Description:
By secondary structure, the chain is an alpha+beta fold. It contains two helices and twelve strands, in the order H-E-E-E-E-E-E-E-E-E-H-E-E-E.
Amino acid sequence: MTESTDPFDVTSSPPEETLGETVSPWRSLLTFFRSLLETIVPALVIALVINLFLAQATQVQGQSMEPTLHSQQRLVVEKITYRFHGPRRGDIVVLRVPQAGPEMLIKRVVGLPGETVLIKEGHLYINGRRIQEPYLSALTGGQDYGPVEVPPLHIFVLGDNRSFSRDSRSFGPVPIENVVGRAWFSYWPPEVWGPLK
Length: 197
């Protein structure tokens, strides 16, 4: 059977044509915003989860932690370690102290729950034993302090720059629940890039 070549033959199928589909500007805009939301919302959720449970960035304000940390230095604070154990002596922590105002503070843990803290002639004593503090650039000044016993579930914190630090000597031992996390990594300025020791 041969195919008809008659142009008026209704049984033959005309060649298919594809017409260019016109898309309204509103539909293009909605598609764009939908793609944007599909990208941004998951990224924001991930960032929020990281910030709440894993790590966050912070900036050092003031000179209370010199020479270890300097004003405007930027750090990553990790929040995982203290889910497995409490702060340890020598840790640099970021904490909230309502008595000190709304800003978070960054200090060094020197006294642990149940310990007795004493500062005499610039030297730190824990339970009567003098503690070596190699992170201090020199013997710091300031008045003698203590002895004070650190309550359960509290820590005693000091700045490394004792003469210019507002710390547990003024606001007392800090509840461990007020610790945001451990200062872990310095990322700015570039010359101090690296993990904190």
